[in-house]
C-alpha cells in the first residue's frame, strides 16, 4: 500500500512540475526593496512596473530626484545611520564613483555585463542608459559647427547652460570639457565672457530656447527631439568633436535587506528585456540595437575618460563655481 502511494505521489509531481515551469506566469516571489534614482519618472516607473509584473509579490519603493537632491538624500541617510536604498540608479559615473568610494556599493555585476560596452561598466556597477549632451538652437539662428562656436559673437548673450550642481548631464559635460586640452575650464570662462547664462536643468535650457528667451544652449538629445516632434521651433545639433555621451549606471548597495531581490532588479534593468522598456520611454538604452530616440547617421560622439575624472568631481565643480556662481 505504501509503495503504491509513493508511486502515485511521484507521478503527480512529475506531471505538475513541467506544467508549472512552462506556464509563462510571473515568477512567484516576495519581498520589497527601495530604489533611489535620478532618471526620469516615466522611465523609472515603467521599469518598476515591468519588473514587478514578472516578479509577483514584490514591491519596489521609489525615490526619484535630480542628482543634486539625490546626493542630499544619500547624505541625509548617512547622517542617521546608513543608506536606505537597496539599489542606486545614478545618471552619471562621477556620482556613482563617489558612492563607491563611500563604501555604499556591493561587489556586483550584471549577468549580461559582457554585452555592455566596456566603457560603460566598472567592477561594482554597469551602465543601463545613455545621455547625449547636444546643442539646441532656435529656428533661424546660425547652427554651431563646433562647441567653440557658442563662444562667438553670433551667440553673444543668448546661450544657456545647465547647472552641474543640479543635473548629472551638466556634471558629465563639465568633466569632458575640463579634461580636454582643446577646451578646458577656459571654455567656460569664454562662455561666461560672451554672456552665457546658467539655468537649473537641461529642460530649462530647452524651454528657454523654444520660447525665444535664448538662441542656443546645451541640453539632452532625447528631450530635444521629443520637443521638436511636438512642434517646438528648434534644431538639434551634434557639434564637433561630438555630443558628450554620459552613461547612467546602476548598482546594489550595502544596505542590510533583501540583497537577492535587489540584485534581481538591477540585473533586470541591465537585461535585454529591461533595456527594451527603457528604450520605449524615450531614453537611449546602453545595449545596442534596441531602438530608442533618434541618433542621426554619422552623428559625432565623444566619451570622457571617466577613469581620469574619478575623484575630481568636487574639485572641478568648485572651480566651475568661480566662473558661474550658484
TrEMBL record:
This is Extracellular solute-binding protein. It comes from the Bacteria. Keywords: Signal. Residues 1-19 form the signal peptide. The keyword Transcription regulation does not apply. It comes from Kribbella alba. Pfam families: SBP_bac_11. The keyword Cytoplasm does not apply.
